[in-house]
């Protein structure tokens, strides 16, 4: 069984000290997939100065030179990997970036061509801002050949671009839902990679304020008993002592199983 860890929102607004504070005792055990925003535009969020919540100003990652230096060395050391987390992460009046931006294809191209050389990192995963992806957004991610690492994935054929895998994967998820006694709207994180023609998808469990060790253990146990894998997703900027405790105890729990391997998130798709 593979277990991976994803962290969202590294951007110009991230301090290397904060990442170190949260992950120094973690990335020595498991690589952290940092879903990174290449050209952040400020929005209302803890850790982003209030002056930038509505300024509309774009901040390329390289303007935080200390962070870029640190990320490059963490990538080289195998402690982090880099995923693309939107292009600007801006919110629109009628949706999040990859639901509402008029040009998702160009945003992916711009983000990829900027981030990879800047950080000397190969990027193969896309994490949509706010985990929100329109049909067109998903088609763009697929056309770019990026794997989609999300949370709250929807497999309903009406929500997705049509291809042969659409129906087949929908049935697989439905079968799992039934086999685990879930009704239609009960929450589910499907523990297997779903493959489509040009990309693959995997859903993550969330570590947010209030998440308990018990909840994570239940998700992990279910995935393990089904023969699946597990990915945990969180945000460094909201990890406090309590969440950090849950994270460490979860890693302790998972590492007790001899068949469990801690891998980079990219390893879930191989
Ligand atoms: Zn985000």
Give a description of the structure:
- The protein is an alpha/beta fold and 270 residues long.
- 41% of the residues are buried.
- Helix 7 (213-225) packs parallel to helix 8.
- The chain has 8 helices and 12 strands.
- It has helices spanning 16-23, 65-76, 97-100, 104-119, 135-143, 164-179, 213-225, 241-255; strands spanning 2-10, 32-36, 39-41, 58-60, 80-84, 125-126, 147-150, 194-195, 200-203, 205-206, 230-235, 261-262.
- Strands 1, 2, 5, 10, 11 and 12 form a 6-stranded parallel beta sheet that branches. A 4-stranded mixed beta sheet has the order 6-7-9-8, with helices on one face. Strands 3-4 form a two-stranded antiparallel ribbon.
- The protein is 34% helix and 17% strand.
- Zinc ion binds at residues 8-9, 85, 89, 129.
Largest sheet: 6 strands, parallel
Tell me the Rg in angstroms. 18 Å
What is the 3D shape? globular
What's the average pLDDT? 95
Number of strands: 12
Cofactors, ions and other ligands in the entry: zinc ion
Strand % is 15-25%
Terminal Cα separation, in Å? 13 Å
What is the succession of H and E elements?
A: EHEEEHEHHEHEHEEEHEHE
Give the low-pLDDT segments: none
Helix content: 25-40%
Q: Give the count of helical stretches.
A: 8
Give the class from helix and strand content and strand pairing. alpha/beta
């Amino acid at each position: 069984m593979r277990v991976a860890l994803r962290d969202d929102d590294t951007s110009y607004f991230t301090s290397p000290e904060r990442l170190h504070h949260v992950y120094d005792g973690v990335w020595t055990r498991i690589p952290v997939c940092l879903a990174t925003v290449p050209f952040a535009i400020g929005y209302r969020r803890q850790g982003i100065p209030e002056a930038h919540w509505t300024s509309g100003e774009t901040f390329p990652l390289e303007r935080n030179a200390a962070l870029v230096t640190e990320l490059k060395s963490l990538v080289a050391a195998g402690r982090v990997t880099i995923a693309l987390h939107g292009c600007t992460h801006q919110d629109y009046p009628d949706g999040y970036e990859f639901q509402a931006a008029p040009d998702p294809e160009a945003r992916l191209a711009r983000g990829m061509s900027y981030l990879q050389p800047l950080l000397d990192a190969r990027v193969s995963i896309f994490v949509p801002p706010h985990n929100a992806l329109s049909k067109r957004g998903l088609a763009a991610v697929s056309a770019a050949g990026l794997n989609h690492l999300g949370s709250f994935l929807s497999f309903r054929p009406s929500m997705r671009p049509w291809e042969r895998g659409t129906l087949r994967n929908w049935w697989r998820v439905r079968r799992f839902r039934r086999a685990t006694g879930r009704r239609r709207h009960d929450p589910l994180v499907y523990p297997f990679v779903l493959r489509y023609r040009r990309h693959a998808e995997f859903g993550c469990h969330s570590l947010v304020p209030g998440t308990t060790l018990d909840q994570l253990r239940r998700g992990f146990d279910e995935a393990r008993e089904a023969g699946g894998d597990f990915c945990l997703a969180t945000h460094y900027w909201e990890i406090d002592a309590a969440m950090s405790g849950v994270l460490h105890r979860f890693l302790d729990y998972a590492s007790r199983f001899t068949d469990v391997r801690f891998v980079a998130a990219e390893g879930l798709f191989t």
